[in-house]
Structure formats: structure tokens, C-alpha cells
Amino acid sequence: MDRMIVRGGKALAGEVEVSGAKNAALPVMTASLLCEGEHRIRRVPVLADVATMARLLGHMGAEVVRGRGRARTELRIRTPAAPRPEAPYELVKTMRASVLALGPLVARLGRARVSLPGGCAIGARPIDQHLKGLAALGAELRLEHGYVEAVLPRHGPGPAPRLRGAHVPFDVVTVTGTENLLMAAALARGTTVLTNAAREPEVEDLARALRGMGARIEGAGTDVVEIEGVDELRPLDHEVVADRIEAGTLMIAGAATRGNVVLRNVVPAHLEALSQKLREAGATVESFSDGGRDCVRVRGGGRLRSVDLRTHPYPGFPTDMQAQTMVLLCLAQGSAVVEETVFENRFMHVLELTRMGADITVSGRTAVVKGVEALSGAPVMATDLRASASLVLAGLLADGETEVQRVYHLDRGYERLERKLRALGADIRRASAS
Ligand code: EPZ
Questions:
Q1: Fewer Cβ within 10 Å of end Cβ, the chain: N or C?
Q2: Is the pTM of the predicted complex or chain greater than 0.85?
């Protein structure tokens, strides 16, 4: 297994281009199941999770080809007339976003057999809201042998049954739950209204991709979304939105190392919650346009001040930025209260950070981070995607050398992070398994 070797103490400077968003690319890829033909998706990051989704679509009979060279961030997906409506456990267990195949398969083929994703390191991650929504649209669901089987009941001869529009009030805000229902409702008969829907930019980007296929969707990006079902859709031709979590991770790197970094081709509005926290902590964050591209510049200045965090669905502070921001708080002046309200077990990075000298006390979903004078480099182990990013950031700040093991977690969600950090002056290299 690859490791990342980081030597800390350098202030980062320079500029990097941010990749397309993993959490937008994955649902947009499953939208290709909604219609036969040749789909084109641009700005798709080169990531392990994207490769897994390509394997899943391949298992269903689609042909997924990634461009080469300068076109390497472009995917072409050829979807057959009748994809195999199954997502097997072997693939779903490595990537829970596979559950996003459920909505499109049921909507297009009237049936689906998808492995239940099970929990993961950060929490139980149930999909009850996904299932409640599909049932509201008329799917009959059966849970057996670790799979969910969804089928549209046939009532006599005649055309294949279709989902029918309904009101779906979500009990909790769920990003992929909202995305599954957006895709299912796009081909349902009649109107669907989602209330308490997720407002994340990745949900809005999927809606934009679906509208490009001919779907009729109003209100995506707000908590009430109305979808007027259509009889059929046309192939995707979509460019994925910038990855706000990769951008945020690099912003933390710039601010915490007291550097001066520019992130290119971002959506500043998607970074607002983090930008505000960085300003409160004493960093400078400015957005500007250069050559038609929106950019953000972050300057760390002196020692930053502690600020409290409370994660919340968008537009609140993103749970996917909690671990990374905690690293900045480890060396800040004062102490901070970090509340993780979205997932029940998203403090696994804390144990590793305390091994590097951080002063963090966890009680349930709350962590108190007392700023210390320095962190010291150490061998540490990644447990999940964003925890692995936080350990790399800690290595940038620590005295001496940090070795981050199990870097495959990082590769699931960051495209060549070490190259981007090196372009900003970081002393970081990947060591392949010895
Ligand atoms: C998406 O996961 C993201 N993944 C996660 O990013 C992100 O952390 C999360 O949204 C929250 O923003 C993708 O988009 C592929 P949820 P998702 O359904 O959709 C509960 C990363 O690091 N819930 O919004 O699985 C659930 O337990 C990953 O890139 C139910 O109770 O998250 C959680 O407490 C990690 N029932 C809360 O809602 C359901 O049916 C939010 O989960 C669904 C969710």
C-alpha cells in the first residue's frame, strides 16, 4: 500500500487548478443509465471512486472510456438499450455511492437489484430515505440477502409500468437520497415534489446535467424541488462543477502554513462557509476573476485564532471539511469547540493527530481543540477519505517527517493531491509499498 511522506515547516505559495467534484461526477455518471446512447461528461476527476463507478456501469453493460492526454478528464459512456439492473455487493461494498444506481434503474427499467451499502468508518449511513422516496413513487421494495430489490408492479398487459409522481418529504437532509429521487422522478409520470431536499452544489449540478438531458426540474439547490416527469431523455453532455472540498482542503493548507495560495477555476460562493471561518481565524480570503475563471486567494498571515465549528448541511459548514479544519485549529491561538452534527463517528483523525502532539478532547459528537505551539511528525494511519487529507495537512505543519499510511483512502477522493501540494512548494512524496 502506498504511503505519503511529508516534511513540514514550509509556507505554501503559488497557484493550482482545482479538479471537478467527485460528489458531482458520481451521480452524473449514474444519470447515464436514464437513456440509451453516447454520453459525454467533462471535468471528471481521475479518482479511485470514479474508476469504481465506471466498473459498476460496465457490469451493467455500459461502455465507459476515459479520454487520453489533455482529454483525460473527459468520459464517454455508451449505455445499452437494456442495462443489467444490478449493482453487486463486490462493487457496492467498496463505494457506497453505488446506491445512486437505484433511482435511474427503477425509473428506466422498472426494476433494480442493488446491494445494501452497509455502514462505513464514519457512520451507519442508512438509506431508508432513498427507499421511502422510491416507494412513494410506486416502487415495491423487498430487502433480502443484503440486497434491495425494487420492482414496479404490473397490472395486466399493456406498456411497461412507470413510476408516478408524488410528494416526497425527506425526514432528514440526504444528499444522495435527494439525487436518487431527482433521477427517478425525471422519468416518472406526472409531477414529483421533494421537500426538505439537500441543497448541496453537487445536487444542483446533477439537476443541471438532467436538465441538459431534457428533464424538467425547478428549485434544485433549494429545499423544495419540483420535477415534471418526461417520457424519455437524451444523452448527457455535461461539465462537472468544481470540487469545493478539494478547494477547501487546499485553502486550509495555504492558511495553516501561513502561505499565499491561489486556487483556480472554483465557485467562490460554494466556499463561503469555510471562507468566513478562515477570515474569523485571521486569514485573508479574496475571490477574483482571471481570464474568465473564478479564483480564490488565501493568505495565512501570522498565527491564526481558534474558531468554533458546527457542521451542517449546505450552506452550513461542510462535514467533509471538518477534519481538515481541525488541523488548522490544532496550532491556533486559544481553544475551539468542534461539533459534528451530520455523522456519528467522524473524529477518527483525532487519535492520530494527538499522536502528533495535538491537544484534542472528544465527547460524543463534540471535540475541544486547544491550540499548541507545535506538532511533531510521526507515522500515522488514515481511516477514511477526509481523515487522510487531514493527516497530510498535519504533516505540512509538523516538525520533521510524517508518514501517512493507507493512502488508498486519499486516492478515492483527491486527484494527485501530492502533485498539487508540491506545485505549491510542499515537501511531499508518495512512497510505493516496499
Ligand atoms: C454525501 O453522502 C457525500 N457523498 C458525503 O461525502 C458527504 O459527507 C455527505 O453527503 C454529507 O454531505 C457523496 O455525495 C457520494 P447523506 P451521503 O445521505 O449522501 C443520514 C466524502 O467524503 N441518512 O447526506 O451518503 C446519514 O446517516 C463523502 O466525499 C439517513 O438517516 O450522506 C447521515 O447522518 C463522505 N437516512 C445524514 O443523513 C438516509 O436514507 C447525511 O447523510 C440517508 C441519510
A1: C
A2: yes
